[in-house]
Amino acid sequence: MKRMKRMERMKRMKRMKRMERLKRIKRSEEDADDEEDEEDEEDADDEEDADDEEDADDEEDEEDEEDADEIDEDADDEEDADDEEVEEMLMMKRMKRMKRMLMMKRMLMMKRMLMMKRMKRQVSCSVFLLILQSSNGRSVI
């Protein structure tokens, strides 16, 4: 009788251990799926950031070409300019162009700063998750 009860208890314990192990495996699979989804989202964000940066570089190149054309035109205008008013007008054009270039550079720098902050935050979150997983006894990989 005691032996039967002990056998039943052993079977119950084995069954519970098996269930716990299955639950842990299922949780780890869900965590792996979540991590894959997060990595896919991060990759998509990185691609968008790269596209934005390429677009900004293309715009900057186009503006540089336009500025070079304007400088050439200004040089031609300066050769023809004998009048002080015309020289003042050319100076105003240059000032506006320089101001526009500074604004574009400032905007690009702000975009890059925001992108760097976002990447830093993503890295911090990833490191935190790795530390959290390792402290829970799960494998880091």
TrEMBL record:
Organism of origin: Champsocephalus gunnari (Mackerel icefish)
Residue spans of biased composition, Acidic residues class: 30-88
Domain of life: Eukaryota
Name of this chain's protein: Uncharacterized protein
Region of interest (Disordered), residue spans: 1-88
Composition bias, Basic residues: 1-26
